[in-house]
Here is the input.
Amino acid sequence: MNMSHCRFENTLSDLDDCRGALSDMREEPGKELSERELRCAKRLLALCKEITQDVMDAMNKDAIDDLEDPDFFAYIDELQDQAEELTEAQREEEEEAQRQEEAQP
Here is the structure.
């Protein structure tokens, strides 16, 4: 059965979920993406930009193009780096706490 009648409805929900995940990374440091999800997040941002550009072109409007793909990717990379640093710091704290606990008589 062709499900094209709900393509945008389903995608909108999924896209909103992705937006929430990116917001969570920004607002709750320590949340990180798998390498695969990181690559897909970048591809998704590039695709959103292409879709916006296509619509703007179709409407004969000037697209807001002051952000290039590398800027989008740099932003996602920055969030990922922050999450990884926090995760590493948390691991180190947990390991230290475990060592101290094991050292107690």
Notes: The radius of gyration is 20 Å. Residues 4-103 form one domain.
